[in-house]
Each structure stands twice: as structure tokens, then as C-alpha cells.
Amino acid sequence: MMTLPRRSLGVGVPLLLVIGLTWFVGSYLFVPWLNPVQLWRMQRDGESMMLMQRANIDMMFLREEALSYWLQHETWPSEVAVPGVHDPAETLVEAELPRPWVLRLRFTDRFPANSGLGGTVIEQTLEPSTQYWRCRPGTPAPPARWLPPNCRAQEPWTIVQWLSLLLGGSVLGLAALGLLWYWVRPAVAAIIAEPKLLFEQPLQGLPAIDRQLGWLRLRERVLAGAGIATVRWRDALRQVHAAPGTRALQLAARIGAVDAPAPGWSLPGLVREWTLPDTLPLALERLWLYQPDPALGADAIVQALRGMPNGQDVVLVVSPSLAAEPELVAHANDPANLCVCLEQAAQTRWLLQPGALDALVDLLASQLRVTRISPYQTHGGITRPGAFFGRESLLARVLNREPGNYLLVGGRQLGKTSLMKAIERRFAGHPRVHCVYLSLRDHRLTMRLAMELGMAEDTGIDALVAELSARAAGRGLLLLIDETDLFLRAEAAQGYPQLLALRALSEEGRCHFMLAGFWDLYEAVTLDFASPLRNFGDVIHVGSLEEDACRALATVPMARLGVHYASPDLPNRLVAACGHRANLVAITCQQLLSQLGRGQRVLDARQVHAALVSEPVIDALAGWARLSPDPAACRIDRIVVYQVATAQLAASGERGITLVELLATFDAAGVRIDPEQVRHALARLQLAYVIRREADGLPFVFAVPVFVTQFQREEVQALLQRELQAMGAVAAIK
Predict the structure, then answer these.
(1) Least buried of 64, 65, 416, 523, by fewest C-beta within 10 Å?
(2) Segment 401-444, tens digit of pLDDT
(3) Domain boundaries along the sequence of the chain
(4) Distance of CA 275 to the CA centre of its chain
(5) Which CATH architecture has domain 391-541?
(6) Distances, alpha carbon 311 to alpha carbons 104, 261, 306, 336, 523, in Å
(7) Which tens digit of pLDDT belongs to each residue from 446-494?
(8) What region does 562 belong to: left with phi over 0, alpha with psi -120 to 50, or beta?
(9) Which architecture does CATH list for 623-733?
């Protein structure tokens, strides 16, 4: 026969006693129908318990009757009765109203004699201010076992009662917590462990998550862990049930867009027009926000979108529900349209994350062709701050000094206009400087400025500056004048009358100027001793972009679109091939984006090479043959370029040509030329960033290495000979 060890018996018996005692107390407090003592009493007084249940209902009706009478008549009733009971013999409880607010309830003799209830009294007193009933035993009082819990005498509890309450409360609390955790855990357990997961939740699910976190008293902790401000969280919760117009306004405010009505659309739902902020690092100025009717199914929404007229504007579709999202996303991923789906989870990130504008950029980049939203601006001056890179030292020369005059000298497409636009943006709202940008289309400065100010075309420069000063409201005036070459050429022919006026205005302190131009400005500043621009201001040469800025230009906008290079050295090779010329880097990057296939986000060396020799890049290098209005000067420029190309094509590496070798070339061809003409040609080509040299005595080479790819060795030699022959023929005629 198998026996248990004594130690096992010693542990088991107390454990069984504890379990049995816990069961007895717990059943006595919470499940009396399973407790043996309570079962015995219920079987013995079953009739009394049934009558007591009916009496409790009657007492409830009597309280309601008294309270209703008082609320309607503002006086305490003299008598009340149980509604629907007309036979006094059927009455279980009789009501007496001895004084205001007191309801005396007396049990009748219908209760069995052994219950001890017949003739006993319970008094209930109404608190008028709170409409709360207080109960106490009357005289004579019912047996204690029949008293409701709120009518029992407030006697000190025994230790057994306190322990029973503690045990019962603990069991009940654990059961409640277990039940609460069972229902809450699947939704928020992961969020509590990792608060950042809040950003991945659908917007429609946020109210339920908020309630569950509130039940657990963890809302503040989770929001703090995710870095979400309480105000922003509440705004997101209100967004769920807000009107469509309010939702559109709130979404626009998060990215700094201007929300406006968009009439004329036949789409079922709400359509709004958004003007996007200048800080958006993409080439997108506006889009249409579409909030479909929530009653529509996904098929109906997609059908309505397909019925829209074709255009070039992006439509941002706000997902109305999780059920509609798969079809909306599939439609947005179709490259044939310009629709973008703002999913439920994306709406959550939009409203809760600090960088809502970044969320919009990620969304557009993932669902649209990158060429449609490319941040690279390949024509004109850079107008968006996010597309401007570098030039920090040049900006500092202007922004961190006292007001003065500046002369921006450089070739076309080297960034003069972009630099002036950046200066204008930096001075916007400045407390001491009022900055005005003006681009000349021809030689008529005063007429162009008068048109900008809305004044008569024949208004003089003094009156124009006076008007600008009035608009400056006491601030210093800085006038940025772009494209000044034609103006300066006309001024030189007429003896500089307007330039003299500008210099006088500057010396009087009424206005300061920044002039931007190419060769005519360079001549007026350095070669013409009679020019009023000589010593007029600080000369700033605009050439190549800083290497770090070029690398950022080639990588940062790409990264915003989710595009990366296969090798870390590819951006460096691209920048070097472009000669650190900003517009060539931008054009090359734009060509790289156009080569990307659907879903491709990695650029390889083959694509970089193809972009560098593409037609747009070669077109951007054109124009060097007509840098001067003088045909003879242009011919000398071409001879210099052909000679440098011949030298670089004849050997590998950056083999260039010196001034001595250039003069020898003219001598060998029998062409007599003034050396100053050659020096001017070299200066002009350097200013245009066609050629460069690192220091005096070193040979001239192409400033942009890819420049030489547009020449063939045999062709360039033939072109050089023809230019020399033509120059010799002209010299012979003279």
C-alpha cells in the first residue's frame, strides 16, 4: 500500500483548510445560493424571502411616488400608495408620511409570524438637494437579517467582518482586473509596451484605444512615451467625428497649407483646394483634397475618381474607412493617374507626429512618379527654400554686414538669381531692411521699376526710390536688380546717366543696390575706369558651389523621395563630373529620376553615367560660343575652347593649355592678335565657368569635366583650323 510522506500530509491539510475556509467565506459573501448555511435559511424561510422581494419592489414604487409628487407640486405629499394595488388585503407595505421628507414603511401581517416582520418599520428620509434616500430601522425594527444593507445599524465591525471584507474585496478586485485585462490586452498591450505603435493605428480606432488607456490609467504615460502632446491627441480624437470641412481645415493646418473651397467638382463628397507652403521640399505648389462620402463603397469611390477629367494636379484622397482602403491604395498605385490615398494610419501620423510635412512628402513619394514631384528645379532661380543649398559664405557677406552695395558677377545658370532670391527671403520681415527684387527684361530700368510699383512709366529714379522708401516704413532700402547686362550696355553707350543717379542715391544713404550680371557688369566694374560702378560696392564672384553643398544637393532631395545610390562614392563622382556646378547637378539628378522604373529606388553607376551624357546636360552646357555681343570676341572664345578641348582629348587626365601656348597657336596660323584680346577671352570664359585654372602659371582646363564629352578629337581640330582661317581672312581684309 502506497503512503504519502508525513511532510506532504503536513502541507496538504492546512492548504485544504485554507481553500475550504476561502470557499465558505467567498460563497457566503458573493454566491449565497452555493453556501450551505444560506441554503438552509432560504429553504426554511422561502415564503418570507419571496414576499420580501415583492415588498422591496413596493417600497421602491412608494419612494418614486413621493419624490414625483414633490417634484411636481413642490410640497411633500400627505399620503402615497403602491400603483395598481387596490385591495388592502394584498398590501405588503403601508406608507406613512409623518413629516416632510420622511417616508415611514410598515410591513403588514401578510408575512409569516416566524419571519418577525409583521408590524415592523423602516424609515427612509429624502435629501432634497441630492434626491438621495437615507434608510434606518424604525420602531419596532425588523430582524437584522431582513434589513437592507443601507439600513443596518452602524455598529463597529468585528475582526472577522473586516477580514471577510478584505478577502472578498481582493478576490473581486483581482477578478475585475483579470476581466478588464482580458478585454483590453489584445488592443493596447503592444502599445503600452511600445508607445510608438500609436502612430501605426488607424484614425478610426483611436477613440477605443483612448478609452482603454483611460480604464488602465495609462493614457498620460503612453502619450509621453510616444512624444504626443495631450492637446494634439485630443485634436486627433475630435477629428474622427468632425464635419468634413473641419477635418480638411485641421489637416491643412498641420502642414501649413492654405485651405480653400474648390467649386465645380462632381465628386460625391467634399473637395478642397490646398495651396502648399514654400517649405515643402517638392516641386508641388497645390493639390486637391477629396473626402469621399462615407456612405459610398470603395468601388463607387474608385469609379468616381476614374471619371475625373485628366489634368496635372494631384488629388489627395482621404480614406473614409479601413474597408475601402485596399481598392483606394491600388488605384493610387496606378502610375496612370495622379491620385494619392491618405490611409487611416497615415492620417494618424499626420495628426500626431511633429513633422506632418514629412508625412506628406513620404506619402507623395511612395504613390506618385518621382518625376512629377521632383524637388530639383532645373530652370530659373530657386524659389523654394528646401531646394536651395550652400552659398552660406556669400549669404553671410550680405546678411551679416551693415547695409552696402554689392555686385554679383558670374555666368548664366551659375546661381546668381537663386542667391538673390535667397537674400530676399532672408530679409523678409526684417526689422531694419526692406528688400525688393527686380529682374530686368531689357535696358529700361526705371520703366520696369515703375511698372512693379504701379506708377507712370516715365517716373524718374528719384521719385521711384522715394516711393520705395515710403513703403519701407523707416527701414533701410536694398534694391536687388537682376539681369543688368543690357542695361549696363545701354548705359555705357550713353555715358552712364542712370548709374550716376544710383551712385548718388547710395552715397546719400537713401538706397543700397545689388546688381547681378555677366560680362557687361564685369567690364563696368574692372575694365572701364570711367564707369560709376568702379568701387561702387563689394564684388562677389558667383562660380562653383561648395563641395559639401553639391553632395547634399545630389543626395538630400533623393533621400526625401526614398531614392538612394548603390554606392557611397557615386554622388562624389556625379558632383566631380559636373564641376560642382549647381544647375548641372540638379539637371543630372532630374535625369536620374526619369530613368527610375516603377518601384525602383536605387541608382547604379550605369544610370549615373547615362544621366551625365544625356541631352539635357549637354544642352545646359551650350551657349559658350556666344558670350559677347562682339563677333570677333566670340571667335576668340571659340578658338580658346577648341584649343583646350584638343589638349584634353590628346591625352588622358586634365591636360590643359597655357596663355603662351595659345599665343603660339595664333602665331603658327599667321594670325596677328592683341594679347589683351586673348586675356579678355580667358577672363570671359572663366567668368562663364567654361574654363578654370587653379593658380597662376598652371594650364587652363575645362571647369566642368563632362564638358569635353561634346567634342570629338578630329572634329575639334577641324573646327579650330576653320576658326583660325576665318580670323586670318578678316584680318587680311582690314
Answers:
(1) 64
(2) 888 899 999 988 888 888 899 898 888 888 889 999 999 988 88
(3) 44-153, 178-234, 243-367, 391-541, 547-620, 623-733
(4) 14
(5) 3-Layer(aba) Sandwich (3.40)
(6) 82, 18, 12, 11, 48
(7) 899 999 888 888 888 889 989 888 888 888 899 999 999 999 999 888 9
(8) left
(9) Orthogonal Bundle (1.10)
